[in-house]
């Protein structure tokens, strides 16, 4: 292999897009090993299930293991009842010095104090974090999130078993994307207690109930000057939204708005749009319920979206079921004729 120029060898390795081929390249010789190992772990490493997680941890803990510098993105999923598994995994990850993306979905596992302390002190390079676990208190979750100085995206779908006021802690300065679910009221109240971040541009709020909506609007106002994308996923029926006094929100940078949920109704969409003033380019919502022939909400929606309120509007996406497509197009013919209407049939519903 010494007769083959290094540049040619690297081109050969870079062209390998199969994990088996890259594994073979890493075993050819020492000269190929580093480049092949880097390419092998350039994508996310996904470990699913208790058995594979235990094998992965055993590999990392082996004194001959040399994988640690190469793992940049790691996803760990387990939906069994193995509560101690999480606290067994965290210490094994400490040596992953170049880890920038971490996704842990062990929703029935409680994070112990010792593992939490390791988490806060040994994963400073993380930029993208997804957590679906159980904390002892809301304060533990907040302290963990704020311990990553380079954090850019946060997906927090965790719960906690104890009640405690969240500490006054500032968000990482580079954090621009929030995807929040589960105990949404606690999280939003913590965010409202922080100084407003100048970087927040995308917010995705899941499991929103009607009783949360006033707090949701309060937080949206809090980040109004920087927000470019907003997604609100309703947890259940939202018939009582008309009883709320939400006021008007000016969102000068908002370009994309999505409203979803199994029970979304068009009159609710119209109601929400009446509270938001923004130069929207893309509006997306769900409509899985039967179309009421006598409903005037569709006509109100078309009038609002095709009028002067949204001069930049380029696309209206409606997620629905195939048998409702023609009824929807008949209800909003002007949007259909303008070519801005997009009807999609999602295989997986995102609430």
Automatic annotation (TrEMBL):
<dbReference type="InterPro" id="IPR032675">
    <property type="entry name" value="LRR_dom_sf"/>
</dbReference>
<protein>
    <recommendedName>
        <fullName>F-box domain-containing protein</fullName>
    </recommendedName>
</protein>
<dbReference type="InterPro" id="IPR036047">
    <property type="entry name" value="F-box-like_dom_sf"/>
</dbReference>
